[in-house]
Amino acid sequence: MMQITDPFVTNVHFKSSSKGQLEGMRLAVKDLFHVQGLPTNAGNPTWAATHTEAQNTASAVTKLMNESAVFVGKTHTDELAYSLNGQNVHFGTLKNPSAPDRLPGGSSSGSAIAVAMNLAEIGLGTDTGGSIRVPASYNNLWGLRPTHNQVAMDNTVPLAPCFDTVGWITRDLKTLFKVAKIMFPEQGIVPVRNDVRLSIATSLIDLCEHKVAMWQTLSPLEHTAATMDFEFCKEASEAFRVLQGYAIWQTHGDWILQHSPVFAPDIQARFDWCKTISESEKEQAENNRKGIVSTLENIFAKQDILVIPTTPGAAPLTSLSGDALNEYRSKLMGFTSLAGLAGLPQLHIPLPVSPLAPCGVSLIGRKNSELALLSAAAKIIGELL
After folding, report:
1. In this model, does residue 137 exceed pLDDT 70?
2. Cα–Cα distance measured from residue 144 to residue 2, given in angstroms and rounded to the nearest whole number
3. List of residues 6+ apart from 72 with CB closer than 8 A
4. I need a surface site. Which of 46, 100, 126, 266 has the fewest CB within 10 A?
5. Mind listing the pLDDT tens digit for each residue in 290-336?
6. Cα(228)–Cα(26) distance, rounded to whole angstroms?
């Protein structure tokens, strides 16, 4: 597949006349967000051809521009955001600047690459099944998936509304925190705590190829071990896969049947499968979800933060076969599905040391605890916000 280096679909500069908290910071926006007067391609030419230019701008974009962020363009995304690879058969695969022989991660790949290449300070994206956390991990960046429904999703192209969130990617924690304060003003000033209770999913970390790098950061921290194994994650991944797939077909099925868009083979196969999901399969997945959420609630009854791997390791090689990528995706979603199923916020922290290429670790917090989560991250890495 052709590799490209320009993360932007459109390069258009808009700047608010006000003086705000993000003065001088450039904002790259995933091409799922509507921006008035611009087309929204959603990573697929048929989508662009069957939809008119946006009449309104997404409030998530407006909120940042009102604080003087400079809109510098819309960025490439996987088709309808239904992938974690960063590959697009129509527009190409973005080159990962940190590891050119590896995938950039999707579906917010363009926003992540714009930040990684210093073309923007803030990469706005969406995260349904990992689309902020995964490209942040693969590109040595910070990334936040907020609590579900914490940030308005108006004037965006949905994927699975029951899991869709607005998130953002930055090169450093301070910028991520600035954006979070704008997005969550109701959380106020969060005091620095020295008694944050950490629970670390030790068995999951030990499964990862970058476990040494994770333990270098985590070992000095006082913590308890979370009783969570990979079988638990496999169950979570399958429940998420079914519930997401069912929601996707409810969202896009009519459009797909009416317009017969051309998708990449792997994405086409997933859409074809979505169409077959029955009500009974959905109900079973929902029951399984309740058990998984209950396990997480039990952890948070005693602990403040759950620490898990963001990804199984470094980004897959671009040469990896389709079957191997599907197998990797299943393992990856065992990690990314947990926060999605429970609607919890998750923060990806890039690690300073990695054996192969960028990767990192994640903090999952209670609902509506984004600023507290970032404050805890600052303490873990020894940085003042």
Report:
1. yes
2. 29
3. 8, 11, 12, 13, 26, 27, 28, 114, 119, 120
4. 100
5. 999 999 999 999 999 999 999 999 999 999 988 899 899 999 999 99
6. 40
- Asked about 278 being catalytic, the answer comes back as no
Residues in the chain: 385
Per-residue pLDDT tens over the stretch 138-195 = 999 999 999 999 999 999 999 999 999 999 999 999 999 999 999 999 997 766 677 8
Sign of CA dihedral 164, 170, 176, 182: negative
Hey, where are the domains in the chain?
3-187, 198-344
- Annotated catalytic residue within 30, 74, 95, 181: 30
Residue 203 known to be catalytic = no
- Tell me whether residue 90 is exposed, middle or buried, using C-beta atoms within 10 angstroms of its C-beta: 0 to 12, 13 to 18, 19 or more: middle
CA-to-CA distance for 61 and 69, rounded, in angstroms?
9
Catalytic residue list contains 19: no
**Active-site annotation holder among 68, 98, 108, 131:** 131
Please tell me the class of the 3-187 domain.
Answer: alpha beta
Distance between CA atoms of 242 and 239, rounded to whole angstroms?
A: 5
Rg (CA), the chain: 19
Of 68, 83, 98, 107, the active-site residue reads 107
